[in-house]
Design brief:
alpha+beta, 3-stranded antiparallel β-sheet, about 25% helix
């Protein structure tokens, strides 16, 4: 299955309404058009599995509804890449020259806890904010990465996976 992003990350593949009903072992109701184009959608962020073939909850979505809600996770905008990072994913650009480079988000609360600082014990103690980090091609971490104009306008962002 191919990954898509909308308000959540899902797996999906094209499938007609009839093929979905056959996949589920259901008879197509007489009132439904089996040739309707759509997508088999697997929700991977929770929900009890409802088929043996998939780990997540599976449903069918009509093509027009699906295409208004989701975009392929390969070929994302920078805004979608940021949303993916907020969902705990690592992202990268196809246009980057360095191999193995990616970005991820570190939450301010995780920084605060890891550095054992900023617990409000002192008056005026600073609060940590979330930051985007880059894992570089030479296996270094850069905290506080800043996007270039090219990065912000690119539409070749893709999801690498979750941080190790």
């Amino acid at each position: 299955m191919q990954q898509y992003i909308g308000t959540k990350i899902i797996n999906a593949k094209p499938m007609t309404r009839l093929a979905y009903n056959q996949f589920r072992g259901w008879e197509l109701p007489a009132s439904e058009n089996g040739t309707d184009e759509g997508f088999l959608v697997e929700y991977v962020d929770g929900g009890k599995a409802n088929t043996a073939e998939y780990a997540g909850y599976v449903s069918w979505s009509p093509e027009d509804v699906f295409e208004r809600a989701y975009r392929p996770a390969a070929g994302m905008t920078f805004g979608q890449a940021i949303e993916a990072m907020k969902l705990g994913q690592c992202v990268a650009r196809a246009g980057w020259n360095g191999k193995g480079m990616f970005l991820y988000l570190i939450k301010g609360s995780d920084l605060q806890s890891g550095l054992k600082y900023g617990f409000g014990e002192l008056i005026g103690e600073p609060e940590f904010v979330s930051t985007i980090c880059m894992k570089t091609a030479d296996n270094k971490l850069v905290a506080g990465w800043l996007a270039s104009q090219t990065d912000m306008l690119a539409e070749d962002w893709y999801i690498v996976g979750e941080p190790a």
